[in-house]
Amino acid sequence: MKNGWQIKKLDDIVVSTTIGLVRNKNQQGNGYPYLYVKMNNISNDNSFDPSGMVRVEASAAELNRFELVDGDLLFNTRNSHELVGKSCVYRSIGKTPVLFNNNVMRIRFNTGLTPEFAGYAFSSQIVREQLEAMVSGTTNVAGIYYKHLKSLKIPVPPLPEQQRIVAILDEAFTSIATARRCAQQNLQNARALFESHLNAVFSQRGEGWVEKPLGEVCIFNSGGTPSKKNINYWKGDIPWVSGRDMKSTRLSDAALHISRKAVEESSTRMAPAGALLTLVRGMGLAHGAQIAELMGPCAFNQDIRAILPNNDIVPRYLLFALRTRINSSENVLSSAAHGTLKIDMDGLKKVSVPIPALTQQQQIVYGIDRLSEETQRLASIYQRKLAALDELKKSLLDQAFRGELTADGKNAGRKLAEAGG
User: Fold this and answer.
1) Separation CA 273–CA 276 (nearest Å)
2) pLDDT digits over 193-206, tens only?
3) What is the pTM of this model?
4) Is residue 251 within 8 Å of 277, Cβ to Cβ?
5) Beta bridge pairs of residue 18
6) Which residues are CB-neighbours of 90 under 8 A, at least 6 positions away?
7) Crossing angle of helices 358-401 and 409-418, rounded to 10°
C-alpha cells in the first residue's frame, strides 16, 4: 500500500446509510411533488441517469429522511445477480426534492472521502470482488445486506491524493467515452450501409423480374421438441436447431443434438441442406427477421419454420430478399398476447418476393456476400476497439486503487481516441 494510504471499513467512513421508501402505483403520478429514483436510474456505466424518473407523494417526515443531496452514493441492493451492487454518485438535477426506492441504499460519506473518489472506488476491481462475495440469493433475485456491506474494505488516500486521482480519471474517462461513441457510431454506420444496400437491391425491379407471394414459391414445415424425459432422444448426431442457434445466415450445426429415433417418434422434423430456417417466435426477433440457410440436414423446434424454395429460386437469394421484406413490413412481425415477439404465418406467406432469373440471383448473392464480409471485417475492428477501451478503463481504475496511477493515465484514452474510430 502506498505511503499515506489507509484501508478503512465502510462502516468507519460513512455518516449514514438508508434504504429507500416504498411507493406503489397508487402513490405515483404526474401531479405529485417529488421525484423518485429507482434501480434503472443507476446506469450500467456507474453514472446517474435521471431519465424515466416518476413523481411520488411523501410526508414531511419521509422527505426529511429520504431526500437525496448532491454527492450521495446510490447503491443497488436488490436485482439480478449480474446487476446487484451497481452504484453511482447522485448529482442534483434541480430544486425539486428527489427521493429513492427500497431497492436502493443511500450511502453518505464523512469528510474524509470525497463523493467522486467513492464513486470510482465502488467501480474498481478491488471493491467489486468484495461485493461479489457478499451477494446472496438466486441468479434472478439477489441482494447485498448492510450487515455484510459495512465490512467492505476501501483504500483511502489523503484528500489531495483523492482529488489528484479523480482529476486524472475524469479526464481519461471523458476521452474514453468520446472514443467509445465514435467506435459505436462507426459500427452502426457499417451495419446501416449493408442494410441500405439490401433495401436498394430488393426495392428495385429489373427487367424480367416477377413478384410472387412467398406461399406460391415455397413449402413450409413446422418443427417440434422431442420429450426431454426420454434421454435416448438426446443422444445422437442430428443437429436440433432452436432460437439460440439462429445467429448466422448459414447453419451446419446446433448446440443440441438428437437421435434418429427422436425424429421418427416426435413432432420434430428434418430439413434438408438448402432449406431456410426462420425464427417465428421469440425475443431473438427484437433485432428483426432471423433466417439461416442450412448447409446440411438439421432438425428444428416449434419456434422455427423450415422454408423449402422452388427450383427456380436460389435459397440464399431468398434469404436476403425475405429478410429485407419482413423487416420493412408492418404486418408480419408483431407481439403475442404475453409480449413474446412472433411472425404471423399467414402474413409471411403473403410477403411478396421479387424473383429475377437464376443467373441474376446468383450475381446478387455474390455481391451481397462480398459486402457482408467487408461489413463483418469492419465490425470486428470496431468491436475490438470497444473491448480495448473497456479494458483501458478497468486498467486505469486498478492502477488508481493500487496507488500506481500517474499523470500519463489521463492521456491514454485520448491516444486511443486519436488512433481513429
Assistant:
1) 9
2) 998 998 888 887 77
3) 0.76
4) yes
5) 106
6) 37, 48, 68, 69, 70, 71, 72, 73, 74, 98, 106
7) 170
